[in-house]
Structures are given as C-alpha cells and as structure tokens.
Design a protein that fits this description.
Layout lengths: L2 H20 L3 H8 L16 E9 L14 H10 L4 E9 L3 H11 L6 E3 L2 H9 L7 H7 L1 H7 L1 H4 L12 E5 L5 E6 H7 L7 H14 L21 H5 L7 H7 E2 L9 E2 L3 H15 L14 H9 L4 E5 L11 H8 L5 E4 L11 E4 L3 E6 L7 H11 L2 H8 L6 E4 L2 E4 L2 H7 L1 H7 L3 E2 L6 H9 L6 H11 L3 E4 L6 H23 L5 H13 L3 H15 L2
Parallel strand pairs: 1-2, 4-14, 10-15
Antiparallel strand pairs: 3-11, 4-11, 5-8, 5-9, 6-7, 12-13
Length: 539
C-alpha cells in the first residue's frame, strides 16, 4: 500500500482503539457480555434476540453423527454464547466450490447474509466503492475491542478504503508460510546424492532419478519433476528472481486474475530463465508430457502416491497433511521405506540468497453488506470470534479436545478432533486464518502435534518455508492492470504450455512472440504504475 494510505489506516485504527479504551469499563462490559438486547432494532420486544445471518461454507465433508453443517454442537455453542449478548445467529450455507459464482449473485440480488466473506479482496473493495458494503468504523470502535487486539492494526488496515472507511475485517493469518520444496530423500540416499542447494544441482539430481530409477518404477513411467499448468511458485520460481529492490521486483511481479499470490514477472529475465529451465526439464523427459491437463495439483498428488515423482513445489506441509491427501502415508502403503521430505529454499542464481514466498498477513476478507439491518450485532459476533469464542471454535473444549502444554493448546485426541471438530473449524473462525494462535512458533508447535508420527515432517516444512528472505505476496493491482487483467491472463495461458513444450531451438523466437503479445496490452504502463506505487510505499 502507498505510505499515505497506510498512515491514514493506522491513524483511523488508533482512533478506534482509543475510543474503545476511553469507553471501556461498565459500558463496554455491558455491550460485550450482558444479556441486553441490541439497540439497533427498536421494534424488538424486551428480551427478544436480534437475529443476524452468517455465511458458512458447506464442503460436503461432515462426518456421520455430527448433525448438519448449520446445526451441530458448534453452531449450538455459538448461539448459546451469543444469546448472552442478545444475538441469535442463523447460518447461510454456501457450497465451497461455488464461492466465486454464488457470492457475487447474492450481492447483486440483495440476498447476501449479514456477514459475508471471500478471499477475493479486490472484489470486496470494488463492492464497497460501489456502495454495496457498510462502513463499519463506528461499530468496530464501539463493540470491536477484541477484534482490534487479535487481528491487529496492520492487518485491519488492509480493509480500509481510500475514503478512510473500514469496509472489511481481514482475517489474520497465524502463519504466512506458503510453499515448500519436497524431494524423495530415500532416492537421494540410495544414489549417494546430497540434497540439492541450487537449481543446477536440482536438475542434476532429477536427471539421476530419471536415468537410474531408484525404485524400479520404469523410466517410461518416471517423471521426477511434478509440475501443473497452474504453477508459478515455490523454490523453482524464486531461484530465478532478480531482486534489485522492493519497488523494482514488485513492479514486474504481476498477479493473475485467477488468484496466484506469488505473481508472475512477465517481462523480466526472471520469467525467461524460469521457463527456459522448465523447457529443458520437459525436453529431457523429466516432466509428464500431459502436465498441462492438470490446472491444479491432483495429477501431481497421484504421481507422488504412485512413486513416480521425485521433486515437487507445493503447499507447505502437503507431504503428510491428511487434508491434502496424506501423500507420504499413502506412498508408504506400497513403498514402506519411502521418504518424501521438505528441503531448504534453493539458492538464487543471481545473488546466491534464499528467497521464500509467503502469503500476505491477511486471509479471507469479512464484510457486512448494506442490506444487513443490524451491523452492531454483527460486530458483536465477530468480536466474540476474536476472543474466547474463536478459541473454542478452533481448539474445542479444554480437557476433551485439547490440553495446554507450555502455554500452547495441544490436541488431546487427534481422532476425536477429526471426527468432531476439524471439519468445520476453519469455516466458523472467520477473523483468523490457520487457527487461533498468537505467534508462528505456537502455530508450528500445535500443528505438528496433530500428526504425532510425522511431527518432525510438519515442523521442518513450516520452518523451512519461512527460512530466507521473505517475499510477501501483495494484493495491489494498478489501474491498467485491472483493466487489462483478462487479456494478460489469456496471453499467459496461451503461451505457458507452448514455452515449456517447444523444441529448444524454437524457444527464443517463441518467447519474443510472447513479449510482443503482452506489449499489446500496456504491459509497460502497468510496470510503470506498479513501480510508482511501490516506490511511494517504500518511503
């Protein structure tokens, strides 16, 4: 963000904080803890609860015996506690797979829930600028002390508009680790090879995997480098970046409309070198010839479990995370001695440093549409989530679902938690992302305990994903970038597979065509606008 906007943001939040502390004591306690009904609905009878509606993702993953997605022990707990503040919460279910289509329709038709959320921050700001979202500055100051304390001023500033209004409460990420590089350690050991430290060593290791086939998979089935059409992330990409300064790097690192948070340096040597490496890998048989049929990672997961993958850049912790398929666990069903481990970031080819991508400090953006009749009650609910309520929804009940060890809540019964809690906690805890934790260290300690047999795997993956110079993803888009994003996306999609699968001798001419196509859609102007923005924010 530009410096001036950030200063305005922090001043506004500081004012909110001061307002809360000046007004705390008996009055504030009554607002957050008493059973008094809300003053926002004068038509209510004495003792009648103020009703609000809150969106809740339906992932179709509710275990047997747990009730329904909108009526279970956790939604009942919410209403039991919120009744003490005079509020009744009704949950509105939205299929997770339909977020990007259903939410805009609800907003356009005036049928949105009173509390909505989406990971698309740009569209939330657009709706606010168009008058579809409430400015909740007043309500936050009066009823949001725990929100300000937990989410924090810096994260809240991401939800402040150009007019100074607080249009959203961005969820606070407990940890910003995003990607890890994973390798078949048992293959390295069998071939007497060391963990690769740079991109050249990685290529040589992958060639050895292909040629020597350490698990006797068959060279015709063995594609050591997992890569999907949707990838431009992780160790491979950061090996090629040219980091002269923040403004220069960010001016060329342009995110796609599809939501890639690491960005794509369209016109720099970074992008050329990255695709040259992939082209070389493809032409040496290291990549599945049909990689382009996988937009995301299903094909790669299948390859890991089948034992045909030797290296993969993917989500942190994904080698053992049950929610991502329990890849190593499934691989060991057929190869008991297999070992698929996280490795440190590869050294950058230009300056030798280790760079790691990380998510922004924000997760989803929580907002209150203009159609909501009781924004005060909505903020009371979100404030509840930022305190003891959110802690309970994430960890469960002490003594049953967790116990406190060295000040950190640790799961007590992993199997019980998987049945009763884990399937819904991410979606009910709206003001936080990845859990109710105060520090990254607390997060890693607690999460690693969820898989006792693989505790070190998770610890290593999260720790290594944050070791090096962190490149924090940005949500900023320049005016021309927004205008041309669809065209840029199409050009990139058109040329991505061509650049990787081209014959080596055809690569140079094809890359020139690619740049020429980008220039038709004001790529130079976009870079100029982004450089101006990030130059100001760096001052």
């Amino acid at each position: 963000m530009v410096k001036t906007k950030r200063i305005i943001s922090l001043l506004i939040i500081a004012t909110l904080t001061l307002t809360m502390f000046v007004g705390c004591g008996n009055n504030n306690t009554a607002n957050t803890n008493s059973g008094k009904t809300s003053s926002t609905d004068p038509a209510k009878k004495p003792g009648e609860l103020t009703e609000i509606s809150v969106m809740l993702f339906d992932r179709g993953n509710i275990p047997a015996g747990q009730g329904t997605v909108d009526n279970n022990q956790w939604t009942q707990y919410v209403n039991q506690e919120m009744a003490k503040q005079g509020v009744k919460v009704n949950f509105v279910l939205i299929p997770r797979s339909e977020e990007n289509t259903k939410i805009p329709v609800m907003m356009a038709s005036g049928t949105a829930a009173d509390i909505m959320m989406t990971y698309n921050s740009s569209i939330v700001e657009k709706w606010y600028n168009e008058g579809g979202i409430k400015d909740i500055s007043k309500e936050l100051a009066e009823h949001g002390q725990q929100i300000v304390e937990y989410v924090g001023q810096d994260v809240l500033s991401y939800g402040i508009g150009a007019d100074g209004g607080q249009y959203a409460i961005p969820a606070r990420r407990s940890i910003t680790a995003s990607f890890s590089g994973f390798i078949r350690k048992d293959w390295l050991d069998k071939l007497g090879l060391s963990v690769p430290k740079n991109i050249d060593e990685l290529f040589n290791v992958l060639m050895a995997f292909k040629q020597k086939d350490p698990s006797n998979i068959g060279q015709d089935r063995l594609y050591p480098l997992a890569y999907s059409r949707g990838d431009t992330k992780g160790n491979l990409y950061t090996s090629f970046i040219e980091y002269e300064d923040e403004a220069t790097y960010r001016s060329r690192s342009i995110s796609l409309p599809s939501g890639s948070e690491t960005g794509h340096a369209y016109t720099s040597e970074t992008f050329r070198g990255y695709y040259e490496f992939l082209n070389k890998a493809y032409n040496n048989g290291l990549m599945d010839p049909e990689f382009f049929t996988s937009q995301f990672d299903q094909k790669e997961k299948e390859g890991v479990v089948a034992g045909t993958v030797g290296y993969w850049d993917t989500n942190v912790g994904a080698n053992v995370d049950p929610l991502r398929g329990g890849l190593l666990q499934n691989l060991r069903a057929t190869e008991p001695n297999a070992d698929f481990v996280a490795i440190p970031a590869l050294a950058n080819m230009y300056d030798g440093k280790q760079y790691v991508d990380e998510y922004p400090p924000t997760g989803a953006f929580v907002f209150i549409p203009k159609t909501a009749k009781n924004p005060e009650a909505c903020i009371k609910y979100l404030n509840f989530l930022a305190g003891e309520g959110g802690k309970t929804l994430w960890f469960g009940f002490e003594g049953k679902h967790y116990e406190v060890v060295d000040g950190v809540p640790m799961p007590k019964d992993v199997e019980l938690n998987a049945q009763e809690l884990d399937w819904i906690k991410h979606d009910t805890f709206l003001v936080g992302n990845q859990g109710y934790f105060k520090t990254e260290e607390d997060f890693i300690k607690a999460v690693s305990k969820t898989l006792p047999e693989y505790e070190q795997y998770l610890t290593d993956s999260y720790t290594l994903a944050l070791t090096g110079t962190r490149l924090t993803a940005t949500t900023y888009k320049s005016p021309t970038e927004i205008e041309q994003s669809g065209n840029l996306d199409k050009v990139n999609e058109d040329y991505k597979v061509k650049l990787i699968t081209a014959k080596p001798e055809a690569f140079d001419a094809l890359y020139k065509q690619y740049i020429s196509e980008l220039e038709k859609y004001d790529i130079a102007k976009i870079i100029e606008e982004r450089y101006e923005h990030f130059s100001k924010s760096a001052k």
